[in-house]
């Protein structure tokens, strides 16, 4: 780190939850220098979880989900303009409007965006939507208000399932098409996926699993329906593409950072790696776009699309940005997330996809309340509660302490002899569209060749800017 | 006043639902829904809910805006 850790210029790229919380933490920790926050949406930071729940149910207007700030951040906000490039050798961020922002330290918190429907002309049909931003949520809520004859939801991850739940609660007919064997399989495995499938069908969702949408059809530019891979047809005037998220890393192409479709790799202290795996001193990463090693999960690189991870990782990144080496902290938070759908409150701690077995430790699917505990090679690695949130703290402790799996009896309402069964987690090499945790330690995106300084000129190489 | 509830922390004790039912509501057995933008006449109720939450999951503040220098 150069200069005074509590002075100088810090640029935060990404004006969502992680960016805001990092900015607040920087000021809270005494950063007195110049702070600039760049965001590609023309609005201050807001909260996303209500967009697929309260907003779609019509309880909250899309524009009312702003985030409370905990303290003044005294930042220069550059909203409505995206970052288009980074040159770490001269410490500059390039913006779409041509501006260049100089920094001493940089935080990358650019998050993810909705994965679009792959066929642009079909995606452009009126009635084909995605759900990621406030504007998306406002548009979808308006469509649901208008009373469509049928809503087609493509993909049954958490977002798709929550959209389907809101539609059913409004009394709308909804078809969900999921390529996997059940909803939520990518995130929770097959055992709880089967429970999710039952819940959807019990609430009147026309759920089609093991099927994909092969074409979205339209007349006069308006969506009329879809063709399915099994030969089926759906008539629908609204289709929501819920095929997961794409990490916003394209702007880092050529920057020399270890950035790709799985995120920006960093160490446990949120410091970005360059393309050779060398840690940087002045570039930090936090939130959905980060990819970091977690000791509880055998130092696998994890990418987490979790609200709680954005908060916790942003605070660690901010702390480390203004702290000298020995005072820096690792980001070791146990991953956790929640979803509510079809009357069920689903909460998770740990990494359910990091498992080979699962067992129902408390409750049962029949009761509609349970805790499923996941294990990997004899250790507890995750727990998922359905309408049983109070127990998760107990399991979080088991995960943190590397307790043996299956865990010993500890609950009054456990089944007589809980039996571990295979967790049926999909192979991470073939990532499904909907995991909220991606194990990214396998399969490098590409092999890198070492470029020696003084080699062939490359407009992005560091060689150009040597003093 | 703007609020956010850390739903990782929330364990559905529902103290907020008793104290500020216009703002907080249980959806099903234990899924909490709430209004992020608290209407002025509800702010005192919400302050009580913030204090009463056993896991301190309700985070109040002013709306984050771009002119908070």
Automatic annotation (TrEMBL), chain A:
Taxonomic path: Bacteria, Bacillati, Actinomycetota, Actinomycetes, Kitasatosporales
Name the UniProt record assigns to this protein: NADPH-dependent 2,4-dienoyl-CoA reductase/sulfur reductase-like enzyme
Chain ranges of the Reductase C-terminal domain: 337-407
Required co-factors: FAD
Annotated InterPro entries: FAD-oxidoreductase/Apoptosis, FAD/NAD-bd_sf, FAD/NAD-binding_dom, FAD/NAD-linked_Rdtase_dimer_sf, Reductase_C
Molecular function (Gene Ontology), one example: oxidoreductase activity, acting on NAD(P)H
PANTHER family named among the record's database cross-references: APOPTOSIS-INDUCING FACTOR 1, RIESKE DOMAIN-CONTAINING PROTEIN-RELATED
GO CC terms in record: cytoplasm
Disordered: region residues: 403-467
Compositionally biased residues, Pro residues: 404-425
Keywords: FAD, Flavoprotein, Oxidoreductase
Alphabetized Pfam families for the sequence: Pyr_redox_2, Reductase_C
Top-level taxon of the source organism: Bacteria
Domain FAD/NAD(P)-binding per the UniProt entry, residue ranges: 9-314
UniProtKB/TrEMBL annotation, chain B:
UniProt keyword terms in alphabetical order: 3Fe-4S, Electron transport, Iron, Iron-sulfur, Metal-binding, Transport
Cofactor(s) needed for function: [3Fe-4S] cluster
InterPro entries: 3Fe4S_ferredoxin (IPR001080), Fe-S_cluster_ET (IPR051269)
SUPFAM superfamilies: 4Fe-4S ferredoxins (SSF54862)
UniProt GO MF annotations: 3 iron, 4 sulfur cluster binding; electron transfer activity; iron ion binding
Coiled-coil region list: none
Function of the molecule: Ferredoxins are iron-sulfur proteins that transfer electrons in a wide variety of metabolic reactions.
Protein name: Ferredoxin
């Amino acid at each position: 780190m150069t200069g005074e850790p509590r002075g100088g210029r810090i640029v935060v790229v990404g004006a969502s939850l992680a960016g805001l919380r990092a900015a607040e933490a920087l000021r809270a920790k005494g950063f007195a220098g110049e702070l600039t926050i760049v965001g590609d949406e023309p609005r201050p930071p807001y909260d996303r979880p209500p967009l697929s729940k309260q907003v779609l149910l019509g309880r909250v207007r899309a524009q009312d989900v702003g985030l409370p700030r905990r303290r003044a951040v005294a930042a220069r906000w550059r909203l409505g303009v995206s970052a288009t490039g980074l040159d770490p050798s001269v410490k500059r961020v390039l913006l779409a409007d041509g501006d260049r922002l100089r920094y001493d330290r940089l935080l990358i918190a650019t998050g993810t965006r909705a994965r679009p429907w792959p066929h642009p002309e079909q995606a452009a049909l009126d009635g084909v939507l995605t759900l990621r931003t406030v504007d998306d949520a406002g548009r979808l809520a308006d469509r649901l208000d208008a009373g469509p004859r049928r809503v087609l939801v493509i993909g049954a991850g958490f977002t798709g399932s929550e959209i389907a739940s809101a539609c059913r609660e409004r009394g709308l007919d909804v078809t969900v098409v999921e390529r996997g064997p059940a909803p939520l399989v990518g995130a929770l495995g097959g055992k709880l996926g089967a429970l999710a499938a039952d819940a959807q069908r019990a609430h009147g969702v026309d759920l089609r699993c093991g099927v994909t949408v092969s074409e979205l059809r339209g007349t006069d530019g308006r969506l009329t329906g879809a063709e399915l891979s099994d030969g089926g047809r759906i008539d629908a005037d609204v289709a929501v593409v819920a095929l997961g998220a794409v990490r916003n890393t394209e702007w880092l192409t050529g920057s020399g950072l270890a950035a790709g479709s799985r995120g920006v790799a960093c160490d446990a202290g949120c410091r970005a790696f360059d393309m050779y795996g060398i840690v940087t001193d002045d570039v930090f990463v936090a939130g959905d776009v980060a990819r970091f090693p977690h000791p509880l999960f055998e130092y696998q690189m994890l990418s987490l699309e979790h609200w709680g991870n954005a908060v916790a990782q942003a605070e660690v990144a901010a702390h480390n940005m203004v702290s000298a080496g020995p005072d820096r902290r690792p980001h070791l938070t146990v991953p956790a997330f929640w979803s509510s759908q079809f009357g069920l409150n689903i909460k998770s701690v740990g990494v359910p996809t990091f498992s080979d077995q699962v067992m129902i430790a408390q409750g049962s699917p029949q009761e509609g309340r349970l805790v499923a505990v996941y294990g990997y090679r004899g250790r507890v690695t995750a727990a998922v509660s359905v309408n049983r949130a109070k127990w998760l703290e107990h399991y979080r402790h088991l995960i943190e302490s590397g307790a043996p799996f299956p865990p010993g009896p500890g609950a009054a309402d456990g089944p007589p002899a809980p039996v571990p069964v295979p967790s049926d987690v999909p192979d991470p090499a073939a990532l499904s569209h909907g995991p909220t945790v991606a194990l990214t330690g396998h399969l490098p995106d590409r092999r890198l060749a070492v470029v020696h300084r003084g080699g062939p000129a490359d407009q992005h190489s560091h060689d150009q800017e040597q003093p | 006043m703007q609020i956010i509830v850390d739903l990782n922390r929330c364990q559905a004790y529902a103290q907020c639902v008793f104290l500020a039912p216009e703002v907080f509501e249980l959806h099903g057995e234990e899924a909490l829904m709430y209004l992020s933008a608290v209407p002025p006449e509800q702010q005192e109720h919400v302050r009580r809910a913030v204090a009463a939450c056993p896991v301190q999951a309700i985070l109040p503040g002013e709306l984050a805006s771009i002119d908070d220098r």
